[in-house]
Fold:
Amino acid sequence: MKWLQILSPIIGGRRINVEDLTASLKDPLYRNSIFLLLGRLLNVGVGFLFWLIAARLYPTGEVGVATALISTLGLIVFISSMGFNFSLIRFINLSAKESVLNTSIIITTIVSAFVAIIYLLIVNNVLHNISLLQKTGYAAFFLLTVVANSMFFMSGEAFKALRDTKDFFLQNLVLSSRVPLLIPLVYLGNFGIFVAIGITYILSTIFSFHLLSKKANLKAKIDKVFLKESFTFSSGNYISNLLYESPSLLMPTIILSLVGKEEAALYYIAYAVSNLIWIAPTAISTSLFIEGSYGEGIKRNLMRSGVAVLVLLVPSIIFIYVFGATILQLFGADYIESLPLLQILVLSSFFVALHNFLVPILNLQMKVNKLIKINLLRFLMLIGLSYILLAEYGILGFGYAWMITYIVLTLVTLRISRKEGWI
Structure:
């Protein structure tokens, strides 16, 4: 408990005892943060194990192709979200619960199927490295997986919006079943990795909707009033979130095209390992957004959230930086080559965490236009610098682009924070 005593002046100027800690755990901010954190830990931890086994069972080149295919899946889902993942949380307490849920899920599901079909029609002319999607069976399964992934994603956002992060944890628990599927599907090559993920998304979606149906009356009905009220917020966040997520989701395909299959695999594993550090900041910043949407004070929760992130972030950075080589070696001897990239990503985590706290605050204040400008800057810098530096330094060029981008974003965040009076 010594570390709690050290932090007590920051959190309130008094010593923290067991009763204080117990009371804090009953607080919605911390309780939701814990379940979000557990869900993220489970998802990232299982993802780590998933790629660890995949790297052992499948050749490095096939892993590289699979990462590009899976990243494309994620990109399509984000394109299809239409900003409703943010509107779910922001408007669930302002409008009829069922209307918000049903409208968000129906529209994003339809859009995801449409975007997936468009992607399948053009993939042969653009992305020859994953032309296996030309095969009817593979293409049909890809389409089904996209729709299931979209529904899974939106149901998870619904659990967050309802402050039911325990069920968010449970749906990620079901998603963990993708790991053992890698073994029997190895005969499919790189598509075996994708099939393992696709099957578990389908199963997890069925389970998630079973849980969600107990909390709301789910039906195929679109609320036009909600659409009108949330349009500006949804569309603004859609653009902002797409700008934010697309660089990481596009990068495996970019590296696959510019550098090669093996390098795409090395990048993806290093990036996946570095994600272990960002679990806590992401979970806590999401909880900050949820509680703020229910009227909780921003400044008070911002300070408490910042202290919690600091406590969890520092040891995570030290651990991954020190034992990075050992962790990468678990994937195979080839993956040690990505250690310099992993170390750069690890050292950038302080800058990443600071930027992640800016997003929920601007969303709570409905300052979406400012958020779009910031994420546009991030998109242009990260993609532009990566294209330039990848040619010169290989996958390490992405690490340089990542750090430079977030240093600039930190300076922008500090400037905005002082102007708005947050610090």
In short: The first helix runs from residue 2 to 11. Residues 1-18, 21-25 have pLDDT under 50 and may be disordered. The chain has one domain: 2-420. The chain is about 80% helix and 0% strand.
